[in-house]
Design goal:
By secondary structure, this protein is mainly alpha-helical. It has one domain (about 1-25, about 75-240). It is about 65% helix and about 5% strand. The chain is built from seven helices and two strands. It has helices spanning about 1-25, 65-70, 75-100, 125-145, 150-155, 155-190, 200-240; strands at about 30-35, 40. Strand 1 (about 30-35) and strand 2 (about 40) form a beta hairpin. Helix 4 (about 125-145) crosses helix 6 and helix 6 (about 155-190) packs antiparallel against helix 7 (about 200-240). The N and C termini lie far apart (about 55 Å). Keywords: Membrane, Signal, Transmembrane, Transmembrane helix.
């Protein structure tokens, strides 16, 4: 139970940190300009110092740490949209699939409190949102590292759909790496040591279940995030042609 509570608090703290970074990047812009019918926040050419003394590069790339702590975000609403999709829609699709196909539940789809007093309707809502928060954090970190919130990453009239898809692919690869690393850390905390296949039947079952969860998480996040991103890109291109 304490491990679940710690995970909840950690995910909440990480989301608050990333939200603060998004807000910081959004308010840095000196003016707003409209692309088609989509309003994008555009930063001035002037460099803005951050709390760590780093400056934004002109192309928005900077160092990996600069991309996270001082990101370039041309659409302030897009990160929040990504959070909603990654945290709610992706895990919900997985829960619906498990329910319809009567497949085994993921290891994370359990009530937070193992007590019969808490087994009420909607008891699985909290673990779904908590797990979704972790997936959202993974995607946000990947999107920041891939510069997926810059104008050319969402506007196909600048670099084409190839650039849009490439940024999505880069963000997804980094997010998948973060998810795999987090899963390994979770197994390390659960067993108290490094475990691998072949040690025992219990360890083998837990490791295989964890990897099945990782594969399902990546698959359903792709189903949720990629269509939304492509729809946004198509909408921007259509509005600019009108």
């Amino acid at each position: 139970m304490y491990r679940k509570l710690f995970r909840c608090l950690f995910m909440l703290a990480l989301q608050l940190f990333l939200a603060n970074a998004f807000n910081h990047a959004a308010v840095q812009g000196g003016y707003l300009r409209t692309i088609g019918r989509t309003t994008l926040a555009t930063a001035k050419t002037k460099h803005f110092p951050t709390t760590l003394g780093m400056a934004n590069s002109k192309d928005g790339s900077g160092t990996p740490l600069d991309r996270v702590l001082s990101p370039k975000i041309d659409d302030p609403a897009l990160p929040y949209s990504d959070v909603c999709v990654a945290q709610i829609i992706g895990p919900a699709m997985q829960v619906f699939y498990v329910t319809l196909t009567r497949s085994p539940n993921p290891t994370w789809l359990k009530p937070l409190f193992d007590d019969t007093l808490w087994q009420y309707k909607g008891a699985l809502l909290a673990p779904t949102l908590v797990h979704g928060a972790g997936l959202a954090c993974c995607w946000m970190l990947g999107a920041l590292m891939a510069r997926a919130y810059e104008e050319e990453a969402i506007d196909p009239t600048i670099g084409g759909y190839g650039t849009v898809l490439w940024r999505i692919f880069q963000a997804g690869c980094f997010a998948s790496g973060v998810l795999i690393l987090s899963t390994q850390v979770d197994l390390l905390v659960e067993f108290g040591r490094y475990v691998q296949l072949g040690e025992s039947a219990e360890a083998d079952a837990r490791i295989l279940a964890a990897w099945v969860d990782v594969i399902n998480d990546i698959f359903f996040e792709i189903l949720a995030l990629v269509p939304i991103r492509l729809y946004l890109a198509a909408s921007i291109a259509k509005n600019k042609m009108m």
